[in-house]
Amino acid sequence: MDTIDFEQLRLPKHVAIIMDGNGRWAQLRGKHRTFGHKAGAEAVRRAVTFARQKGIQSLTLFAFSSENWKRPEQEVSVLMDLFFTVLKREVKKLHKHQVRVRVVGDKRAFSAKLQQRINEAEQLTENNTALTLNIAANYGGRWDITQAAKQLASDVQEGKLGLDDISEDKLAEQLCLAEQPAPDLLIRTGGEHRVSNFLLWQLAYAEFYFADVLWPDFDEQAFARAVADFSCRERRFGLTSEQVQQAILDTDVTSGE
Question: Coiled-coil intervals in this record (predicted)?
Fold first, then answer.
């Protein structure tokens, strides 16, 4: 592909990725599905490096859905072991490169050993600022909204919040990733065109990019194509195209003063 000049692109601040295709990648090679998950871990490393080097602020990876517990017991066990191993192996490297690690989802379902490893990784990297890496594990968009609603209900019950004070903003404050900008770009690999209960609230205004490539083959060039495609999109947020273009012109004039 032609070289992409990233200095000329409008980069997303927050990229979310549904990493799909590990199992199919392995099966195409006559291997067990778990082989694909291990290969997928290498693609994670490439994606994190790309995002950090290009100045993306937040990267959220859908690592393990709350529905994934329904998969074969052996596969789930391998995924949990892989999660633990990758955290242990990579966290010092991530810390060296000023990457903040956060695990979002219902962590109570994980083993005590894995929960401890997650806490250690989050505490070690909590003050890093180069990139925030959110790992969505045992996460579901409906769960996220439900737990936020429960927190608001509790606040009302305790007298901390009035019923009329509940708003979209108040609900959003209780969601995972509340302190970060909403995803600008959602990438899904593997050729499927659905969000699979991922960040249902937060993706309201995101641009979607669907890649046919399977996740273990998602490399820097594939990521670059997604970002370049995003840069060409016109994000309206309910405005007309003319209003968006005028806002861009006004911004350019103001920045040139």
Answer: 107-134
